[in-house]
Amino acid sequence: MGSEAPLPKWASTPCIMGIDEAGRGPVLGPMVYGCLYCARSYQKTLATLNFADSKTLKEEKREELFENLKADDSIGWSVDVIDPRELSAKMLKKNKVNLNEISHDSAIGLINRVLNMGVLLTEILLEYSDQSKGITRLMKENGGLVYLDTVGDADKYRIKLSERFPSIKFVVAKKADSLYPVVSGASIVAKVTRDRALREWVLEETSENMHRSFGSGYPGDPETKAWLAHHKHSIFGFPTLVRFSWGTCTSYYKDMVEVESDKVDEDVGYGSSGKQLKLSNVGFGKASKRKIEEIESSGKGRCKFFHSRKLEQLTHF
Amino acid sequence: MEEEKGTTGSINLSLNGKEEKINLSGQVHHLPCCIKFNGHCTVSQYFKPKLKGMEIDGLAVEEAHFRGRKLQGTTISLPNGYAGFVLAKNNSGKRKACDVSEGNSNDWEMKAQFDKLTYWNHDAPPSKDDPFLRSFHWFTVAEAVSFSIICCLKNFFPPYFEIPLLQLHKQVKAEDLATIDAALA
């Protein structure tokens, strides 16, 4: 989703772009990355459009600002909606991907998308030649600039982005969404998209007695807590709207049926940040090696034919 | 328990007065985990496999989620001549004293039947190298083994020995199959 083609003329002049996220903290629903871009020359006007950190704005105001920026021909925008199923699946993969990596990848994807549209985000080299003095020099001037709210360490994030996009200049800062209007605008794009996605969410599950009063999705929201309690399922855990990799889910797992993974390597997970949960906490119990042999036929000690096919002789049944 | 001794019991595959057999084809799922629960569950309300529209090794890839994990699987037909059964212990109350002394009845009856099942991998897409699919090679081997044993023993015994011979084939040990292993690997 984003602004429609054709590419406006201003996009071929040096542009600035802001990137921000919405729905990183909630235990349910998608996480949305949004970006907003405009010509550098539009920057001053942008500052007058009352964009502020989306969290400080009321919902109606955000909706209004979003509609305004959509109608503004001098502004382009785009969003990446990351499905909760994808968040859970990546964070619970055998080789776990943590939320910061998912966030970085999403921002990188947006930058690529906007670059591919032909928006001038890169720095441009200007050749200055002064005939009278007989010198020629290259100057980097007034190029594109991309602003991001930091995810993890700001310097590391900036270096990662610069390695990926050597010709783009990045400004990575804490609270970028309240410092730079272009990031504030991106935060509005992201937040409104996330809220709408949740509001219009069609639950995949077809069980009776389900409702859509999710609340904000934040773990502390009483409405969200009530929704989780009402929708927990002893076998399946939760509907797939829920991010199973969130710590909030842990407290519900004790009432659920135990599930043992049959792979020893499942609990060795790496690449996890401090925030990430161990498998034993997220509804898949850690199976001891001995137990695994009980639940999974190993074909151990048998000839290769059986071993490689995990077949074993069953004498008791 | 001594492994070699085994147990005796019975499996009743007849309909036992039930009007129609229950066919679970397409509803049997083999998950890469053990759910410590036995009983009824409204699986289809929560477990929603979707065809991905692609094939690997000729297997149509499906995707589903279970407790946040992404599962990739495929639906396979059981080979011709084989059927899948859901068995339950026969607790019809006619348990004899000798069964009780054994500790547990080992009489089973068929509750449902299936000729297709879906097996799932965590993260990895299905492939013909999956042990689950490869275990089906056993069917070919089993047929070849029983056939050759019956054939060679038939040379020594009259036809009415066929029943004990079939039992003999069940006792074929891994060592006997080591050579077949090399041929099939």
From TrEMBL, chain A:
Cofactor info, note text: Manganese or magnesium. Binds 1 divalent metal ion per monomer in the absence of substrate. May bind a second metal ion after substrate binding.
A biological-process GO annotation? DNA replication, removal of RNA primer
Q: DNA repair: present as a keyword of the record?
A: no
* Annotated keywords: Endonuclease, Hydrolase, Metal-binding, Nuclease
Residues that coordinate or bind a divalent metal cation: D20, E21, D149
Q: Which GO terms describe its molecular function?
A: metal ion binding; RNA binding; RNA-DNA hybrid ribonuclease activity
Cellular-component GO terms for this entry: ribonuclease H2 complex
> Which SUPFAM superfamilies does this chain map to?
Ribonuclease H-like
* Annotated catalysed reactions: Endonucleolytic cleavage to 5'-phosphomonoester
InterPro entries this protein is in?
RNase_H2_suA, RNase_HII/HIII, RNase_HII/HIII_dom, RNase_HII_hlx-loop-hlx_cap_dom, RNaseH-like_sf, RNaseH_sf
* EC number annotated for this UniProt entry: 3.1.26.4
Is-annotated flag, keyword Heme?
no
List required co-factors: Mn(2+); Mg(2+)
The family database entries (PROSITE patterns) matched by this protein are listed as: RNASE_H_2 (PS51975)
Give the RNase H type-2 domain ranges.
Answer: 14-258
Q: Which family does it belong to?
A: Belongs to the RNase HII family. Eukaryotic subfamily.
Query: What exactly does this protein do?
Result: Endonuclease that specifically degrades the RNA of RNA-DNA hybrids.
**Name of the protein in its database record:** Ribonuclease
Q: Which organism is it from?
A: Gossypium anomalum
From TrEMBL, chain B:
Q: Name one GO biological process term.
A: RNA catabolic process
Q: Which GO terms describe its cellular component?
A: ribonuclease H2 complex
| Cleavable signal peptide | none
> What CDD domains would the database entry show?
RNase_H2-C (cd09271)
Q: Which Gene3D superfamilies match?
A: 2.40.128.680
The record's listing under Pfam families reads: RNase_H2_suC
Q: What InterPro entries does the database record attribute to this sequence?
A: RNase_H2_suC
This one is known as Uncharacterized protein
Please tell me the species this chain comes from: Gossypium anomalum
